[in-house]
Sequence to fold (205 residues):
Amino acid sequence: MVNWDGKYSTADGLLYGDKPSGIIDLATDRFPDRLGHILCLGDGEGRQSRALAERGFNVTAIDFSEVATNRARQQDQKRGLTVNRLIGNAAQPPEPEMVIDSCFLCFLHFSVAERQACFRWLKQALPLGGLLFLEGFGPDQPQHRAKYMSGGPEQADLLYDTTILKDELSEFTVHHQFCAEVILDDRPGHQGLAQITQMICEKVR
Fold:
């Protein structure tokens, strides 16, 4: 298991930078009136939730790392942003006291059991019509990692395979699906040519 507090503590500045993932622009361009109260799971140092808050959205963020969460809070304070930040396990999120309307999972690579537990929770937490946005490394990323040093996990079961994800999210309709090579420039954490998967899903039952 990755020691995330240690990994963030040794980084010079923000480990993955401050530029949000591509799914953020896609979501806010296509579904601005449907995002409502947003939950960002595995939000790290806050680059996703901060971008959403800067665009005026109401955001709650959860991450496992206390170090990353404290850095995110520092960045929020510098920019005058309000994000409700919680320290917790994305595979076992707390029952939200407020209604959530959409959720973002960006580069959150956890085991099959943890991912499926998270999805079971989301199926209960999201309302009908609620939106789930996914972005992460695709199934061929280990080859890109070895050749281009662009990051991501080596284990195949931690990667975002659209066929597997659609099966696990059978209660959702897929509005957008993308798996292709892109060049990442996310500070030292993600750099170079990588295979990225994106999905936008709507809960329909």
Summary: The mean pLDDT is 92. The first helix runs from residue 4 to 9. The chain has seven helices and seven strands.
